Amino acid sequence: MSGPVTPERREEFVGLAGNDVRLEDLEESFDRVTRLLGTVLQVPHVAILLLGHRHAWTMSSFGIERMHRIDRTVSFCPRVVAAGRLLVIQDARQDPRHAHHPLVDRPDPLFFYAGVPLVMPGGAVVGSLSIHDRRRRRLSRQQRQLLTDCAAIVASEMELRRQIREQARAEAAVRAERSRLGRVIDSLPFDFWLCDAQGRYILQNAVGRALWGTHLGRTPNETGVAAEIANVWAENNRRALAGQMMRGDFTYQIGDRTIQVEEIVAPVRDEQGQIDGLVGVSIDNSERKAAERARRESEAKLAAAIESLPFGLWIQDAEGRYVMLNAPARARWGDLLGKRMIDLDMPPQVKRRWQANVEQVLQGRHLRLDETYGTGGDVYHLDTILVPIQVDGQVIGLVGVNIDVTERKISEQRLHHLAHHDVLTGLPNRRAFHERLTQAVGRGERHGQITALLLVDLDAFKDVNDTLGHDAGDALLLEVASRLRHARRRQDTVARLGGDEFAVILDAVRRPTDAAVIASRILVELARPFSFEGQELRPCASIGIAVFPNDAATAGDLLKHADIALYRAKESGRGRWCFFDEEMRIQAETRRRMERELRRAVDGPELALRYEPVVRPGAAGRISFDATVRWLHPQQGSLEPESFLPIAEESGLMGPLLAGLLRHALEDASWWQGAGLALERLTVRLGPASVMAGELYRIVDKALSGSPVAPCHLEIGITEAMLLGRDGAAIGEVLQALHQRGVGLSLTDFGAGHASLLQLRRLPIDRLRISSGFVHAAINDQGDAAIIRAIIELAHGLGIETVAEGVAEARQLDFLLAQGCDLVQGPLLGTPLSADQVLAYALGRPWERQLQGRPAALND
Predict the structure, then answer these.
(1) d(C-alpha 528, C-alpha 727), whole Å
(2) pLDDT confidence bin for 691, thresholds 50/70/90
(3) To which H or E segment does residue 78 belong?
(4) What is the rounded (10 degree) CA torsion for 217, 218, 224, 225?
(5) Please, which residues bridge with residue 626 across strands?
(6) Is residue 453 a contact partner of residue 558, using CB atoms and an 8 Å limit?
């Protein structure tokens, strides 16, 4: 019987004649052969063996239990295969080659052997068919033929089985190839089909089945698709079966879906070249078509956008040839498409510049150029950008952009002009002035030249604005600017520094006195009157002069020293020029030092109040005081108000100074009243420009709100200059508010200024203070005496009391009392006192001694 085949048995036959024999397939038919031989020949053992590399393998056996393998060195099979014919061995025990054969070397040995080779139809010998017996035998011719025929039957069966296996393998390969081809066709990303010669579908891939359903065995008109689609398919099949290859783009509607396909239908020919079917593919190009459409739309939009750009754009290839220009580029430069730089018709210098720029960019550089073209009024400015186009590190061309920045340049120039020139006069402004002054000083330093600076400040310009309006002020400034231009030299600079202040830079004068000549010419030029809306205006100015290098080594110091000289010119009477000198600098530094020290002193104890008695003749015990401030300077001692109040006014310190004085004065008054002093009024005087009108009321109101002293005991003294100044109207409103608050008001130094009678009627003035100058002169000057009588009569007629200041002699007192003056003050009645001395003075009442025996001074 046949047995199982192991991997070891398979390896035995690799490369041998029996390589194609499958042992596992040799089963019952081979067992029948061995059984037949054993029965007919009456032998105890029959075997069919295949010869391997190391063993002979039993395919089938009869009789004694078979051995699956026999070592090749003792096996009979190799000898039979080698001989290729019948081999008979009567007693194998006698042959050392086989003495150890398993059938021979046993207690009951089968020592007789007869075997024939298994010869395949192709001639290959693969094994043997053998019989074994326990006795010697002589085989007849028939027995030998039977053995040979049975071997042929076994070989034929083996060949048949091999062919069956080969057929099976071929069919399996075909099936595998068909399966693979089917998978390949199903893997195609497009519709694929085959039709027979009648146009019936015999194959559809997965894409086609999913898209249209399964149509195998049907013609297009039998598929059930829409008629218009079926007609297209049928027509394509008809033409393909007629020998044409059909190719085209089609649009199909499948439900709510539209697809665009490219179809190819081609005839299929047999070996004789006859058409026996067709093959077709349908590629869904919907996404590609949509992408192409989107790309075309995008390209169209990009092209339209490029054409619509407000600036020129172009592309040049690696040879500098223009391959694209948008509309603005064509409009500016003409149609340069296809041209190179050498082909352009333009000025040689422009062409050379362009060519150099292109060559640089084609070498990989990025360029940005500020270019100007044209002449005269036809000038335009371009911002040009050139960028190389690189692919894989290789420059293949360039893209250029021309942005017309003419308007921007004009705007920048205009802005630069506005930034450096005065809007009203068109003159260089302060910023440009500083730049030009620095440049002039630099040139003077390099070339050893003299540079002079003239600061020109208009006198009484504010009065023109206040009385005639700002239009008149602007007209005055324009006229002054024009005249300054006319008076200067061509190389000189005239600038407006702001407000009513101008400057003239005299570049490279021969001598310092030349500056004085030009300054005099300017004053003469400015002094000429001019008319504005029927009003005659007469400009007047003061000029400060500083010279480089005599007066300063830097532009900053030159300006500072010219300003000091200007201040001195104004102090000296205005309408004149003044050179800077070292003494001015010292005085200016002294003034600045005093300003710094005054700022520290405002909130400290250095500023002390002194109170001058103001006596009302005939009033029993009642007395007023006129408060004045002294600066107890650590180094300079006691300073009168005239030496520091102007500094306070100019430096903006009068607000805090006045607030502090009012607070201390009211504190002293509260103390005096608490000590029993019958205080009538405490006067605090204001200078000609002490504080702004609005600030004055706030300061007084705040001081009174924080004091127990009643407002009626406080008097604010104002000067005529305050009423006549630029804030006169606002001062009037504040005085009305202070009057309603209960505060007394007095007009100081009346008669020394120009206060009008109309103002006395309109303003709530309580007292008129007669200037000490009139008082001193009244004894010897009938005119001044008449003025005092008129002032007193006028005041009384308006219901206003009078106060005579500076009374130093008894004769002056007698005259004033005789004229009915209400109150008097001065050295004769008492000098200014400290707060502590006031109480002692009031208790001693020394003024009564001066009033005794004078009828006008009798008590009520």
Answers:
(1) 29
(2) low
(3) helix 77-83
(4) 100
(5) 612, 683
(6) yes
Q: What is the mean pLDDT of residues 492-507?
A: 92
**Is pLDDT of 434 > 90?**
yes
Beta strands in 124-187 (DSSP E): 125-133
- Two tokens, residue 493: 């600079």
* Residue 117 β-bridge partners: 128
Residue 218 is given by DSSP the state -
C-alpha Rg value of the chain to the nearest Å: 67
How far apart are alpha carbons 118 and 33 in whole angstroms? 13
pLDDT, tens digit (0-9, with 9 covering 90-100), for 272-309: 999 999 999 999 888 888 888 888 888 889 888 888 88
| Nearest alpha carbon to residue 817 among 833, 799, 805, 804 | 804
Structure tokens belonging to residue 114? 């007869």
* pLDDT per position as a tens digit, 191-229: 999 999 999 999 999 998 988 989 999 999 998 899 999
Burial 434-461 (b: 16+ CB within 10 A, else e): bebbeebbeebeeeebbbbbbbbbbbeb
What's the CA gap between 11 and 5, in Å, rounded? 11
**Does residue 706 surpass a pLDDT of 60?**
yes
CA–CA separation, 444 vs 510, rounded Å?
11
Over 70: is that where the pLDDT of 542 sits? yes
> 830, 841 in Cβ contact below 8 A?
yes
Give me the half-sphere count of Cα atoms (radius 13 Å) on the Cβ side of residue 73. 2
- What integer pLDDT is reported at residue 44 of this predicted model? 94
What residues contact residue 592 under an 8 Å CB cut-off, 6+ apart?
Answer: none
Torsion-angle region of 241 (φ positive above 0: left; ψ -120 to 50: alpha; else: beta):
alpha
Strand partners, 717: 685, 746
User: 496: closest CA among 475, 510, 480, 517?
Assistant: 480
Choose the weakest-confidence range: 311-315, 320-324, 464-468, 663-667. Answer: 464-468
With b for 16 or more beta-carbon neighbours within 10 A and e for fewer, the 330-349 pattern comes to eeeeeebeeeebeeeeeeee
Query: Distance of CA 774 to CAs 625, 799, 812, Å?
Result: 21, 22, 10
Give φ, ψ of 632 to 5 degrees: -85, 80
Cβ atoms of 805 and 825 closer than 8 Å: yes
Strands 367-373 and 322-325: unpaired
Q: Which helix (H) or strand (E) holds 119?
A: strand 112-119
CA distance 171 to 560: 116
Distance of alpha carbon 445 from alpha carbon 742, whole angstroms? 65
Tokens of 387: 């960028």
The pLDDT, as a whole number, for residue 860 is 40
- CA gap 724, 405 in Å, rounded: 56
Name residue 631's beta-bridge partners.
607, 639
Return left, alpha or beta for 323; rule: phi > 0 is left, psi -120 to 50 is alpha, else beta. alpha
Task: Say which residues have a Cβ less than 8 Å from residue 333's Cβ, sequence separation at least 6.
Answer: 312, 325
Strand partners, 745: 716
* Structural tokens at position 584: 């001015």
Pure H helices in 640-781: 641-650, 654-674, 693-705, 720-724, 728-741, 757-762, 772-777
pTM recorded for the entire structure: 0.46
Taken in order 45, 50, 55, 58, the sign of the CA dihedral is: negative
Residue 143, Cβ neighbours under 10 Å: how many?
16
- What is the tally of helices (H) and strands (E) in the chain? 27, 32
The mean predicted confidence, pLDDT, of the chain is 86
What's the pLDDT tens digit per position in 27-73?
677 888 999 999 999 999 999 999 999 999 988 899 877 677 899 99
Tokens of 7: 């991997």
Q: What is the 3-state secondary structure (H, E, C) of 251-298?
A: EEEECCEEEEEEEEEEEEECCCCCEEEEEEEEEECHHHHHHHHHHHHH
Cβ contact 29:48 at 8 Å: no
CA distance 804 to 795: 12
